Every structure is written in C-alpha cells, then in structure tokens.
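W.,

You were right to be curious about this one. When I first looked at the sequence I had no strong expectations either way, so I just let the prediction run and decided to look at it fresh. Below is the sequence, 80 residues in total, followed by the output.
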Amino acid sequence: MSDKHRPKSNDRSNSGLRIQSMIENTKKNIAEAEMAMEFAREEELEHLQEKNQRRKREIQIKEKEKADKAAEKAWRDSFK
C-alpha cells in the first residue's frame, strides 16, 4: 500500500495545542469583526454581531473540549 492511501495515524499528542490555536484564531477574528463594526452599515453590523455570537459559542465549546482532552491525557498518563 502506498503512503498516499494509508489512513492517517491517530496522533493526539498535539490536540491541546491545536485546539488552543483554534481558540486564539477565533478570538482574533472576533476582534477584527469588532473593528469592522465601527464602519459597517446596519445590515452588515447585524451580520457581524450574529457571527461573533456564533464564534463566542464556538470558543466555549472548544475550551470545554480542550479541558476534556487534558483530563483524558492526565488519566492516560496515570497508567504509565
């Protein structure tokens, strides 16, 4: 089987870092949208506000996922 067709390994070693990176990128997007709101027309303003609400919910979900991953890692490490 060629490398091209092999399934990806289930490497969880960097999942906490990956999730943190996603959180930081989302926070950056929120800040950029808030700056854009200063110059937005009413319909654009509404759209940006709704989008930021979704982003904030996503951050909460990702932070819980990150905490769950950390707890899982601690649990797995307790058996080493």
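Here's what jumped out at me. Residues 42-77 form the longest helix (36 residues). And, maybe more interesting for your project: The radius of gyration is 18 Å.

Coffee later to discuss?

I.
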